[in-house]
């Protein structure tokens, strides 16, 4: 859910901008030294993407992520916390049972 929303949020007619934003998630864009001329841009974009990610969540769920310093840290922590690929089959099975019970009513 978060990845889909994040991808949609970064879409633009300029594909370079989309790639840049996604590069923050993957860690391809890293924090430059504070004296580097790119630091201000990094800080601004990093903060913006973190804000997007947190705003996509329920407020209570987003609070613990507010204190992480990089987009990659936030993204990785979200994935570790909420992504459980082993449960996809159980989720599908439960949704199917729910749908079937509604169809029979």
Description:
The protein is 68% helix and 0% strand. The protein has helices at 2-10, 15-26, 39-55, 59-62, 71-82, 88-104. It contains six helices and no strands. Mean pLDDT is 80; it is low at 3-14. With 105 residues, the chain is mainly α. It starts with a helix and ends with a helix. The protein has one domain (2-104). This is Retrotransposon Copia-like N-terminal domain-containing protein. Residues 1-27 are annotated as: Disordered.
Question: Which helices and strands appear, and what pairs or packs with what?
Answer:
Blueprint: H1 2-10, H2 15-26, H3 39-55, H4 59-62, H5 71-82, H6 88-104
Query: Largest sheet at a glance?
Result: none
Number of domains: 1
Order of helices and strands: HHHHHH
* Rg measurement, Å: 18 Å
- Percent range for helical residues? 55-70%
User: How many DSSP H or I helices?
Assistant: 6
Total beta strands? 0
Low-confidence stretches: 3-14
Q: What is the CA-CA span between the terminal residues? A: 30 Å
Class by alpha and beta content: mainly alpha
Taken from the alpha-carbon principal axes, the silhouette is elongated
The portion of residues forming beta strands comes to under 5%
Protein name: Retrotransposon Copia-like N-terminal domain-containing protein
Summarize this structure as a short list of keywords or feature phrases.
single chain, 105 residues, mainly alpha, 6 helices, Retrotransposon Copia-like N-terminal domain-containing protein
């Amino acid at each position: 859910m978060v990845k889909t929303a994040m991808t949609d949020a970064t879409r633009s007619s300029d594909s370079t901008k989309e790639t840049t934003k996604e590069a923050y998630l993957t860690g391809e864009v890293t924090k430059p030294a504070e004296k580097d001329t790119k630091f201000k841009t990094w800080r601004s974009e990093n903060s913006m993407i973190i804000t997007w990610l947190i705003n996509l969540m329920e407020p209570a769920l987003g609070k613990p992520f507010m204190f992480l310093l990089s987009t990659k840290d936030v993204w990785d922590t979200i994935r570790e916390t909420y992504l459980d690929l082993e449960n996809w089959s159980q989720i599908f099975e439960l949704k199917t049972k729910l749908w079937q019970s509604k169809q029979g009513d």
